[in-house]
Design goal:
- With 312 residues, the chain is mainly beta.
- Helices cover 6% and strands 39% of the residues.
- It has 1 helix and 22 strands.
- The protein has a 7-stranded antiparallel sheet, with no helix packed on it.
- It is rod-shaped and about 120 Å long.
């Protein structure tokens, strides 16, 4: 049986007249059945049907999506992907316990469970529950997270509030009673006209204040006529102006209050003149100090900042 090859690449048998196609059989990545060099031309339709079906099946295995937003990931079966339907609004993509992707809600990927929890880390994500009232977050290498809640060390100061002085008076209210003493710092203060700066606690305007720097032994605190006490007596514009009020045992509900006061401020005698005002004030008030009001005797505040600290 003799064969000859035409220019078209067809191999023709001289004995039977059957023509067959010379086809190279490449290596297939997906083991598709390919026509071989010995297949007859009449076999090609069946060969391509087998080949095409295999291609279609494999493409479907590699792209299993059916719906908008579907994702595909490699499965345990070789050359086959698994469909992951689109998640719901707000979900995030995470790795499940089986080591495959899965949609989950944010709560599922954090250790936080309770109001005030902190997100920290050991060798994995970890949770520190909110501490007790008035405790502070402290570094501690003995803890798994390196952090813990602890009671503040004695003598420590905690900033409770920062307020800008404005208008004819400024009141800081809602002061926490969780500390031993109260330190009130007033900086850069001055009114729009040179005059005295006055202070009240708990909004008391009746005669409950007595300046102890002027009182003698045996003074009758009940006869005081002062409705406020002085922080400064003659201040003018100056960012250098500074004063403080220190109240011991301010949260007591049984004791009268003792205030330690000191201020230094420019006065109206000239740029180099200052007034320094030290004083001790007794206040006939047994309630805890929960607010403080600062005001110029006349006019309004031009500037100034008040910082309130709790002291243990």
């Amino acid at each position: 049986m003799e064969h000859s090859q035409s220019n078209s690449g067809l191999d023709q048998c001289h004995d039977c007249g059957v023509r067959r196609k010379q086809v190279t059989n490449p290596t297939s990545n997906y083991s598709f059945q390919m026509p071989t060099a010995t297949d007859l031309v009449t076999d090609l339709p069946a060969d391509f049907e087998v080949f095409g079906q295999a291609v279609d099946t494999r493409l479907k295995a590699l792209q299993p999506g059916t719906t908008l937003g579907d994702l595909a990931y490699s499965s345990a079966t070789a050359n086959t992907n698994t469909r992951l339907p689109i998640g719901t609004s707000g979900q995030v993509l995470a790795v499940s316990g089986g080591g495959v992707p899965a949609w989950t809600t944010t709560a599922d990927v954090t250790p936080l469970t309770t109001k005030g929890d902190l997100f920290t880390f050991t060798t994995v994500d970890a949770r520190i529950g909110v501490g007790a009232n008035n405790t502070v977050l402290t570094a501690d290498s003995a803890e798994a997270t390196g952090l813990k809640w602890a009671t503040p060390a004695s003598g420590s100061m905690t900033l409770l509030s920062t307020t800008t002085l404005s208008g004819s008076s400024t009141t800081i209210s809602g002061i926490s009673g969780a500390y031993k003493n109260l330190y009130i710092e007033v900086s850069g203060f001055y009114p729009d006209a040179s005059n005295s700066i006055r202070v009240r606690i708990n909004g008391l305007t009746t005669g409950v204040y007595r300046d102890a720097t002027k009182a003698s032994q045996g003074s009758n605190l009940a006869t005081s006529t002062l409705g406020s006490f002085a922080l400064d007596v003659d201040s003018v514009a100056g960012t250098e102006n500074f004063g403080y009020i220190y109240i011991n045992n301010y949260a007591s509900s049984t004791n009268w209050k003792i205030l330690d006061i000191y201020s230094v401020a420019k006065n109206n005698n000239g740029a180099t003149y200052v007034t320094h005002y030290p004083a001790y004030v007794y206040v006939r008030e047994t309630n805890a100090v929960s607010s403080i009001t600062l005001f110029p005797v006349s006019g309004n505040w031009s500037a100034g900042t008040v910082r309130v600290y709790g002291v243990n």
